[in-house]
Amino acid sequence: MVIGVLVLLLLGGGAYALTARSHATKAGAETVNAPKAPELFLPLDPAFVVNFQDQDSTRYLQVGVTVMTHDPAAVQAMKDSDPVIRNALVMLFSGQTYAGLSDTAGKVKLQAKALDAVRKIVADKTGKPDVDALYFTSFVMQ
Predict the structure, then answer these.
(1) CA 114, CA 131: separation in Å to the nearest integer?
(2) If 0-12 CB within 10 Å is exposed, 13-18 middle and 19+ buried, where does residue 24 land?
(3) Does residue 65 share a domain with residue 5?
(4) Is the pLDDT of residue 5 over 50?
(5) Is residue 51 a contact partner of residue 60, using CB atoms and an 8 Å limit?
(6) What InterPro entries does UniProt report for this protein, alphabetically (predicted)?
């Protein structure tokens, strides 16, 4: 009889442990799968057009830029800081070389630098760099 009671206790404890673990896993999964705020896109219009010197000729670069965030406050900060952001990106884009932008790696590097520049400006305004991505929506070199 004592063995029967011990078996029942062990089975009951095991069932409780499995149930508790199952609930904890479900709660953790719900936290992980919690809906994120929607993506907010802000096109920086008009497209940027800059010239830069490349060896003995003048080259032109036209870049369309859109930024993405999940924070409406960051969108407002970017709108409020539009002249500052545009100035920073014009300076960044005009400092490039044709050779540096001729391959995908150069464009990706420029994209990362542009994202960092925008994040810095937004962080100065809001206290946090809530810009998740920066996309080149057009990229023309001549």
Answers:
(1) 11
(2) exposed
(3) no
(4) no
(5) yes
(6) FliL
